[in-house]
Amino acid sequence: MIHKVAAFYQFAALPDYRELREPLRAFCAGLRLKGSVLLAREGINGTVAGAPESIDALAHELAHGAMFGGRLDHLELKFSTAETMPFGRLKVRLKKEIVTLGDEAADPTRQVGTYVDAADWNALIAAPDTLLLDTRNAFEVAMGTFDGAVDPDIKSFGQFKDFAAVKLDPAKHRRIAMFCTGGIRCEKASAHLLARGFAEVFHLKGGILKYLEEVPEAQSRWRGECFVFDERVALGHGLRETGLRERDKDTPRDE
Prior knowledge:
This protein is α/β, with parallel strands linked by helices. 27% of the residues lie in helices and 25% in strands. A 5-stranded mixed β-sheet has the order 4-1-3-2-5. β2 (34-40) and β3 (43-50) form a beta hairpin. The protein is globular and about 50 Å long.
């Protein structure tokens, strides 16, 4: 059986996120989905897998159902497949942030960088005045990244603000293009940089996964594999599994 995998997130005001946990868990369990979903006051972030019709039912409920009442109207949603179930169980957890940065000024619902579609990404990062920045953890960067990207050499996304404070200068770095796996870390990071006075901040809409899905390999500036936080470990162009099915169970989940 081929399993359908949905990765999704949206920054949205969810003051009732604690009350949403059990209805969402029960809905996913009823569809026999497995994976991980995070709920916080600032939004939702998750990756789940199951039968194609079950994934489609969840996607419809999130975007159009009564549970969230239309608040997830800009849900960033990406689909891929897995030859075997990539998760062991279902988890719906409450968090302070759906991706942890620890900067209250970084609020993507107030300000966020400029989205760049996958089709336009190559032209942006080829410009000589663009600083290309990978916002992921060091072990992810080691598996693959874009040509010419700066590695912040961080162990977790929470360290990004320290890297930015030391290594980035609004007067010097006038144009920054950043990327991450699915887009969520870049939204937080771009909000952080804008709050610090950076003038032009761009980020890859849909992240590396959308780029690998849409950009032909012959035109790609991506090198290596893209780490994903499930049992598939890594994906390549066309979101194909690369065959690495061993991973460190204690790997922290940033996305």
